[in-house]
Amino acid sequence: MSQDAERSAGLTRRGLLGGLALGAGGLAVGATAGYAAASEPREQLAAGALPEMGSTTEPCHGAHQAGIATPLQANATFVALDLERGVDREALIRLMRLLTDDIVRLTAGTPALADPQPELAQVPARLTVTVGFGMGLLRAAGLTDQAPAWLKAGLPAFDIDRLRRTWSGGDMLLQVAAEDPVTVSHAVRVLLTDARPFATVRWVQSGFHRPANTAPHATTGRNLMGQIDGTINPEPGTTDFDQVVWLPPDGTPAWLQGGSAAVIRRIEMDLTTWGGMDQVSKEEAIGRRLADGAPLTGGTESTAPDFEATDEYGLPVIPDTSHIRLAHAQGPGERILRRPYNYDDGPEEAGLIFVAYMADPDTQFVPIQRRLSELDVLNVWTTPIGSALFAVPPGFEPGGYVGETLLG
Ligand code: HEM
């Protein structure tokens, strides 16, 4: 269904396509009614009761790049590239023009120029491609004076880190996300074919959520530890979201205004040990109930946790070492947009691709990560093994290209 068709049917994409970042909005009425009427998703789809996501597109033009405020798609691949020696500002302009042309075509459901598999381009499935620039790209362009302080300095080391080079760093990021893993795979292949003369792949991480239509109503997704993950997040379309995520006009290098910062951490989970823990310990580790994501102080998933509440022994109901107590903002600026994906590359290689967007990593991400590093009991079962930081340029208009505000 096209976007316009969706709107004219009185259904918003946000309502229809649910996902980890969404609240308890629920699938729109038509979809819910469809579940009651038919039991098989394919039957419901045929009856028009489920949104046909394959042909749904996300706009790629605008003030901000797509893939940040966009409701989470079910699949994503993150690729970090290292630029070849000798790639300078002129070459980067050529590269970004090529990639932008691919992005415009593929996100509209049309093949890229010289597309090796044009058949695969016909299912856009809410495809978005988001591009980030690492410090190495600014160096190659001879534009280090344009780097924000946080990019120049990079993220500090945290005690819990066991970082591997194979999962860390990179001159450039491509975040490719869609509801269909075949669409993601094809888009990545096309983008990498065009990038090949300019760059080599440093790392690739692929992640997933449950597809939006596996639950009868939109629910917050679960990570591989079984927890409902994504409850507390700024709401796209609000001033709050804009302040948390986009770089403001004041104090920002002009080229990055309307852009963002992306932090990507690969966090391995010891799921075998975690799986053997009892329910109380699991719930105390996070500070929320496993069944419904409600805080341990009661209510529902959307009830605010009461961090002051104590039990009959005078101990905090939400333990001092619980993840949500430590991750909770301790000041108005200490907030981030989380857009994580689960990964599973084998029995001992599963975890979370923690992806977060924010205006300033130094004041928003770092204080949270420091507290988690020092005390979070979740560290017993989780280990950061990769880390990367990128400046995400603002969006582009038809005829323009990603990164033009820096390179142009
Ligand atoms: C594998 C590692 C992690 C797991 C399994 C995990 C899981 C969770 C879960 C289940 C929640 C509660 C529900 C929700 O609000 O989404 C949560 C909340 C949160 N997490 Fe994590 N998380 C991880 C890593 C991180 C990291 C690295 C950060 C940032 C440095 C972070 C920041 C947050 C924040 C800001 C909240 C909301 C806190 C609040 O205000 O209540 N998490 N996380």
What's the gist of this structure?
This protein has 408 residues and is of the alpha+beta class. It has helices spanning 3-8, 13-17, 29-37, 41-46, 89-107, 135-140, 149-153, 181-195, 239-245, 271-275, 279-286, 323-327, 361-375, 404-407, and strands spanning 75-83, 128-133, 172-178, 199-208, 260-269, 337-338, 341-344, 350-358, 382-392.
Helix count, DSSP H or I runs of 4 or more residues:
14
Strand tally: 9
What is the strand content? Answer: 15-25%
The CATH class of the domain at 3-221 and 397-407 is identified as Alpha Beta
CATH architecture of the domain at 3-221 and 397-407: 2-Layer Sandwich
User: What fraction, in percent, of the residue positions are helical?
Assistant: 25-40%
Order of helices and strands: HHHHEHEHHEHEHEHHHEEEHEH
**On the 0-100 scale, what is the average pLDDT?**
90
Distinct small molecules: protoporphyrin IX containing FE
